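Journal club side-thread
Mid-discussion, someone asked how the predicted structure for our own chain would compare to the paper's figures. Pasting it here so we can look after the session.
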Amino acid sequence: MPKVSVIIPAYNCERYIGQAIESVLCQGVRNLELLVVNDGSTDGTLSIVKFLAEKDSRIRVLSQANSGKPAIARNVGIRQSSGEFICFLDADDLFFPRKLEKQLDVFRRYPHLNLVFHDVKNLYENGEESGSYLGRAEFRDHVATTSAAKGMDFICATAIFTTSCPPIARAWPSRTSWYAAQPWRLKAHGFPKT
């Protein structure tokens, strides 16, 4: 099974970070590393992450001065990652059970893809849930060009990339491959890798 690197940028999220980490460690995918990039937290976030890292060797703790931008912390995680696949999770979000297994299965079925993303649900503290994000974002079922793919509106925490995927390689090739999954149906959108 290929290795997955999950990157969590974390800033002052002591209330949620434990649940976020647990949702990653409970995935059926065992060959993973979890890189938590502490972005200068001033609350108990770093202490919680270090405590959990002592209990599970898959957790790596990285710390930096506060950048004020989660993308900077994500890039630190990318540079330190060793997986064949990379995905993100915000410190106040959760992975649904089997998320990574399902996404890796898509890569197995469609080996020409280099990006897989899915829909989300917003969960509120009072137990309520919101509907489809992609439905609200006027999700397009077919992408014919890279420029259309670059314009796709999806939440980065839903995506898993190969390490050669354009967002990771920092350059868009003439064509890219991606796959979108919604809770009630799956659609493949494939373009050959270049």
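Post-session note: The chain has seven helices and eight strands.
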